[in-house]
Amino acid sequence: MKKVCAILVLCLAMMVAYEQVLAQVGDVDKEKELTTKLELFLAEKGKLSVKEFFALGKVSGNARTKVELTAVVIYTPGEEDERLRGLKIEVINAGGSYVKRKSSFLDLEEIDGLLKAIDYVVGLSKEWEGVQKEYIEVVFSTKDDFRVGFYQRGIKQKAFVSSGTYGREYCRFSVMEKLNSIKVMADKGLEVLSEK
After folding, report:
1. Closest to 168 measured CA to CA, from 136, 142, 139, 146
2. Using CB atoms within 10 A as the burial measure, which of 82, 95, 150, 188 is most buried?
3. Model-level pTM?
4. Are 151 and 134 in contact (CB under 8 A)?
């Protein structure tokens, strides 16, 4: 009987500790620092805002994942001259029992850096084709934790994107050219945003 009670007390203590860890992780995620102008604007309470979204496309990855790009324009009515523009990049994982999504925002001035980074990553991957590497990774990261890059083990290369600070979602690609598809969509986003 003492053993059963001890086991029950131990299980109860483990459950309480587990709930405390989950609560702390949730608090950390809620306290994520807002880093882009778009995020800061969207986080403001008690004001009227207008949000325009322009779908740019999707790129499918391995294991039922995909990345979607959307051009975003937001502003306060009457203050259209101060509108904010940028991209929303969403990484979606439908490979489990439920769909998981993580989004990152890029302010307009960050898009050019993303385009240059993708060019560099794709160029470097072509340069290293067939070259034996133990393990190497090349990654570009934005203010709001969108990452794009590739890794190489031996001569095998895989491209990836990810979004999220905690509980990051990944979309991996067996074909490096999928990164070029993302670049084309981001470039299209620049065109759309320049007209808004």
Report:
1. 146
2. 150
3. 0.80
4. no
